Amino acid sequence: xxxxxxxxxxxxxxxxxxxxxxxxxxxxxxxxxxxxxxxxxxxxxxxxxxxxxxxxxxxxxxxxxxxxxxxxxxxxxxxxxxxxxxxxxxxxxxxxxxxxxxxxxxxxxxxxxxxxxxxxxxxxxxxxxxxxxxxxxxxxxxxxxxxxxxxxxxxxxxxxxxxxxxxxxxxxxxxxxxxxxxxxxxxxxxxxxxxxxxxxxxxxxxxxxxxxxxxxxxxxxxxxxxxxxxxxxxxxxxxxxxxxxxxxxxxxxxxxxxxxxxxxxxxxxxxxxxxxxxxxxxxxxxxxxxxxxxxxxxxxxxxxxxxxxxxxxxxxxxxxxxxxxxxxxxxxxxxxxxxxxxxxxxxxxxxxxxxxxxxxxxxxxxxxxxxxxxxxxxxxxxxxxxxxxxxxxxxxxxxxxxxxxxxxxxxxxxxxxxxxxxxxxxxxxxxxxxxxxxxxxxxxxxxxxxxxxxxxxxxxxxxxxxxxxxxxxxxxxxxxxxxxxxxxxxxxxxxxxxxxxxxxxxxxxxxxxxxxxxxxxxxxxxxxxxxxxxxxxxxxxxxxxxxxxxxxxxxxxxxxxxxxxxxxxxxxxxxxxxxxxxxxxxxxxxxxxxxxxxxxxxxxxxxxxxxxxxxxxxxxxxxxxxxxxxxxxxxxxxxxxxxxxxxxxxxxxxxxxxxxxxxxxxxxxxxxxxxxxxxxxxxxxxxxxxxxxxxxxxxxxxxxxxxxxxxxxxxxxxxxxxxxxxxxxxxxxxxxxxxxxxxxxxxxxxxxxxxxxxxxxxxxxxxxxxxxxxxxxxxxxxxxxxxxxxxxxxxxxxxxxxxxxxxxxxxxxxxxxxxxxxxxxxxxxxxxxxxxxx
Length: 838
Prior knowledge:
This protein is about 45% helix and about 15% strand. By secondary structure, the chain is α/β, with parallel strands linked by helices. The strands form four sheets. An eight-stranded mixed sheet has the order 9-16-15-11-12-13-14-10. An eight-stranded parallel barrel has the order 17-18-19-20-21-22-23-24, surrounded by five helices. The protein has a four-stranded parallel sheet with strand order 2-1-3-4, with helices on both faces. The longest helix has 30 residues.
């Protein structure tokens, strides 16, 4: 966290929270930001309260300074009065600033995150409108190509040139990663497509980066100017070197045509094969609600801009919900489509353009937003690249979502009571992600393409789809029987019996192949030389466990119980926890369930469990087991619920953030007290319940032999272990790349832990992100891990990776990896050492 803190004072709580969210996301939550806004009056919630302002300042107070930004009239009076409540020594550290609220807050947090002093932060806030002022009279979405030296005279321009190797270039998901990475750094980052001879565009604008039309083989030049230019370029270069995490060979591609195009027979429709499979069902039409926009004059532009911000805030919440659901249904890789939509709503060029239209032309929010979205959509349509032209669907999708919220329209219903084939003009990506594959058996549209994001999502959901058919399909009555073949790109209206027989046979063969593929994921993961490695799931909800079991999980290696404590004003009761633990154990059907006790603090604070004082280094502070040992009441409640749920199930307890023997022993004493209380009350539980620990602190590795004598199992958390071993905060973009779990220093710690565990006769697993990285699988096998615990979607891939390897081969790779001098060289070693199965 940057030392300087920001306080936002506003009459509107909603406005202040929106500004805080926007500002916090600009700097990845590196700056403490408090809000004092609105008053506790349901009838008239607008206003400011000096006591609330005082409490906000006190909650984030820093000796380096607190900057207070205000919106209107009495907000200044409240802020001035609040300062008088502070001790005199603290009053000197609080600065009231007249800068504009939205732009000032963003400029201030960026300056604070960059390590500037309080006076420099104030200057940045006051000058926040300068950039907007210089753009008056310029097309709002024009490319920013000002003289870089003039803006940053003290820093030289750093430059790299790259050839793009991933198959579809900078399509939405890689573009989102690029922009997200660029935005983490203070330096100004510009990018140009040399192959297409484009202008330089801003690296922090999702639309400008996407409309560069970057495809495989194109050459880019990326420049960075600022204090962290080298780090920024290194981080961006790493994205390209890793193909943005995409496997070019396994990309979710459209199915190939396996038929010769023949003239359509009676009742047959020819279209585009977009998602394989057979569907036979009645049709149901879906039509998105059309939003009619009328432009009109407004006298209060700031109020209209606030409406836009509120709609954007709600749209982000909706998209985040779609993203979360899509992650469970289709996996993180495909769900990242919606990351790009979130970045669209954070695009500084877009936001400046919308604000400019409202403030300069005094037009209503709906008209201004529609005009800006249309302008972006047009910029996509005019691209020569057909694949990038299709990204206009995503622009319209997110644009319409905000417009719907501005107009007060409800979300269209996509819930079907009976199984059906959905017929529509077109589907947006978020429409498609909302579909239930058990009810929507097929998709037939008059527009669309096999490379659209909607088609990609349909393929991942396993819903057959034929797109681009004749518009006559829109005139069919609901309930008309339709059949479609997503592999050949054909659909039939009221198909004749011989067509139905052929399709039924093909459908049966298709389903058999799908079942065999799923069955493979449910087989044990056994190496080529006969070693079985258990593959468990990391979960954080009841929904997760259902996906995990369907994906072939052999148990749950990590249940993150924090989800029970989030989004509420008080801790969950014993009964609430018991109900959830029992439900999860029931779904697992006697598979192992490792429940990690509450792990809050650090990067996971809870508002109602306040530390009581700001922590300069929260990752080194009052978190994990330290918190639970101090809050024995909360700890005992959770332990009682876990013990009660353990009857008849394979439940184990795992303690997080263990650094000393004393912590383990203290926790076991409390556990013993709870067991005694349950015995006395005649409440049953598993008396032989196993207790293990997370090994994620270097001290735990150093005394792993002593800890192994106290517990029944270890689980290595490489996410935290990496940052503690390398002394690099994984949330700080300047040093996050150091916290690489494949660094030999981290691997040696993992090896030491495994050796100590096995010497003591206890099992050891690994539940960090490293476990899901199939590149790392030979390393993890060679180190001798007994089990891996990964996100549910990764289970089939990890099992396949294990089956392709041998322990002998993996041990040889580990021996060499431990002697390397960097994580980069370890990765190179793995890539060149793994041999395909004979």
